[in-house]
Specification:
Helix content is 81%, strand content 0%. It is mainly alpha-helical. The relative contact order is 0.12. InterPro entries: AhpD-like, AhpD_core, CMD-like.
Length: 124
């Protein structure tokens, strides 16, 4: 995994463990609710992650953008679909979202490079 994504996963995992170690009912319920919101229902998990990515871009939360980029990639979102997502976010959020779209594209390139390396390894 790329350096940026490794650091993101390590930090997220470590902090989530620390947060959840403190026995706070509201925090635990919110974390559980967040996980439940992306399970398939009338909308697929893929569509829900795409919606989450647009919202995260518009809200300008880079951690959330990275998380949803990874989840969307895992759900099979294509490069063309990502760029349509970016377009919707730009229309809704305006030019202030451009730096966040830039960082999202950097994450996408890292995810694509990782996937290509994995395929090459499997083919060897």
């Amino acid at each position: 995994m790329g350096e940026r994504l490794d650091a993101f996963h390590r930090f997220r995992t470590e902090m989530n463990e620390k947060i959840l170690a403190h026995d706070n009912l509201v925090v635990r319920r919110f974390f559980n609710l967040d996980g439940q919101a992306y399970k398939p229902g009338a909308l697929s998990s893929k569509v829900k992650e795409m919606l989450g990515l647009v919202a995260s871009l518009v809200l300008r939360c880079d951690d959330c953008v990275t998380y949803h980029m990874i989840q969307c990639h895992n759900e099979g979102v294509t490069r063309d679909e990502f760029f349509e997502i970016f377009g919707v976010a730009l229309i809704v959020g305006g030019s202030i979202t451009i730096p966040h779209v830039r960082r999202a594209v950097a994450v996408l390139e890292e995810l694509e490079a990782e996937a290509a390396a994995s395929r090459a390894k499997d083919d060897a």
